[in-house]
Amino acid sequence: MSFCSFFGGEVFQNHFEPGIYVCAKCGYELFSSRSKYAHSSPWPAFTETIHADSVAKRPERNRPEALKVSCGKCGNGLGHEFLNDGPKLGQSRFIFSSSLKFIPKGKETSASQGQ
After folding, report:
1. Is residue 66 within 8 Å of residue 60, measured between CB atoms?
2. Least trusted range by pLDDT, from 5-9, 65-69, 84-88, 104-108
3. Cα(67)–Cα(39) distance, rounded to whole angstroms?
4. What domain range includes position 84?
5. Residue 79: which of 34, 42, 35, 26 has the closest Cα?
6. Is 81 part of a structural domain of the chain?
7. pLDDT by residue (tens digit) across 14-49?
8. Among 67, 100, 60, which residue's Cα sits nearest to residue 83?
9. What is the number of domains present in the chain?
10. What is the pTM of this model?
11. Residue 44 in domain
């Protein structure tokens, strides 16, 4: 199940089942449901990635508090990281407006082998 919604139909905003979120394009592991938290934005918010290389980041033009984020494997555009805007002091907040797929807990290995 992938999402890309700007019209109120965001399927992962209030989705808190155990599992992982992967790149919808290549299937690379990005975030665990354990790092997801409720946030007022219409998009899912995470505090950390699964792997150090899960995402690539580059500065957002004219927004020093934000970084553009893409998949660390295929380069697919994912969203933004907002620096020092997480649920705890000093944590960043990852917000994704497109290109995520959810894999329920227990299905991770079989799903990633199919990529």
Report:
1. yes
2. 5-9
3. 18
4. 19-100
5. 42
6. yes
7. 666 788 989 989 999 998 988 887 777 667 788 889
8. 67
9. 1
10. 0.74
11. yes
Q: How many residues does the chain have?
A: 115
Q: b/e map of 21-53 (b: 16 or more CB within 10 Å)?
A: bbbbbebbbbbbbebbeebeeebbbbbebbeee
Give the tokens for residue 49.
């990635």
Report how far apart, in Å, the C-alpha atoms of 19 and of each of 7, 28, 63, 74, 111 are: 25, 14, 32, 21, 12
Question: Does a structural domain hold residue 68?
Answer: yes
Both tokens assigned to 45? 């918010």
Report CA 67 to chain centroid distance, whole Å. Answer: 13
Q: Does a structural domain hold residue 86?
A: yes
Quick one: tokens of 77?
Answer: 């555009």
User: Which CATH number belongs to the domain containing residue 67 in this structure?
Assistant: 2.170.150.20
